[in-house]
Design goal:
It is elongated and about 110 Å long. Helix 1 packs antiparallel against helix 2 and helix 5 runs parallel beside helix 7. The chain contains 8 helices and 2 strands; from the N terminus they run ααααααββαα. Strand 1 and strand 2 form a beta hairpin. Bound molecules: zinc ion. Zinc ion binds next to helix 6.
């Protein structure tokens, strides 16, 4: 529902096309499930990695089309990417993450949005920003709902579940996970700013004009050594 509402905002407030807004709605929907990729392997996780695995090659296809990779190679790369995300990612994530770890955090939200911004191919920067925002909003809705369900009201007083505060957070308890998340966040922030062209004025030096160097200078004045008598001409 949030995705659909967001799509209408995108159309009527920001003036995106219906197609772009529909894609944005689906991104919001999928990103709303994304944080639970860290939960113990079960049906939702398999479902989710299936969706992610299907979407990833599609995003890459847009880039292939733009740089002109042959279709055979593009198919092979897409199939390999699908397999890697579908079967590799759950195994790696299952070993690496704890439920309600750094996947349920504000930095992870920004990382997901930045990855969308970098992966989504569009010549229009606004469209990439829309997709990144859609992922961010979906992700945020998950974190907010997780927090809301950790508040219990049993009729007389409000109690907090043990899980309270574990979804909407900036830092977890594991310093290694925090460090890796922060490093990834910093790298992706730099990559996103660079990709948006915001770093150009800071990084790019003015290129010196290349002078054309030729062995002969037809217009050069005659050259004469200081101690040579006047009239000696060198060509
Ligand atoms: Zn969750």
């Amino acid at each position: 529902m949030l995705g659909i509402a967001w799509a209408f905002v995108a159309i009527f407030v920001f003036g995106f096309t219906a197609v772009q807004s529909a894609v944005a709605a689906i991104f919001t929907w999928v990103a709303g499930m994304l944080p639970d990729l860290d939960s113990e392997t079960g049906r939702p996780v398999r479902e989710l990695s299936g969706v992610t695995a299907a979407v990833a090659p599609m995003l890459v296809f847009q880039h292939f089309a733009s740089i002109g990779v042959s279709s055979d190679r593009a198919i092979l790369a897409a199939l390999l990417l699908y397999g890697a995300v579908r079967y590799g990612a759950p195994t790696i994530l299952g070993k690496m993450t704890v439920h309600r770890g750094m996947f349920h955090s504000i930095p992870a939200l920004i990382i997901a949005a930045e990855l969308t911004f970098l992966a989504y191919y569009s010549p229009d920067l606004r469209v990439r920003v829309l997709m990144a925002f859609s992922t961010g909003i979906g992700f945020l809705s998950h974190l907010v709902l997780d927090e809301m369900y950790s508040v219990q009201w049993n009729g007389t007083r409000i109690r907090l579940k043990k899980s309270a505060g574990s979804a909407l957070k900036f830092m977890g308890r594991e310093s290694l996970a925090n460090g890796m998340t922060l490093g990834l966040l910093m790298f992706l922030t730099w990559a996103s700013l660079d990709s948006a062209g915001l770093l150009d004025p800071l990084v790019k030096q003015p290129v010196p004009e290349v002078l054309e160097i030729t062995p002969d200078l037809p217009d050069a004045p005659a050259y004469r050594m200081a101690d040579e008598p006047k009239g000696t001409q060198w060509q």
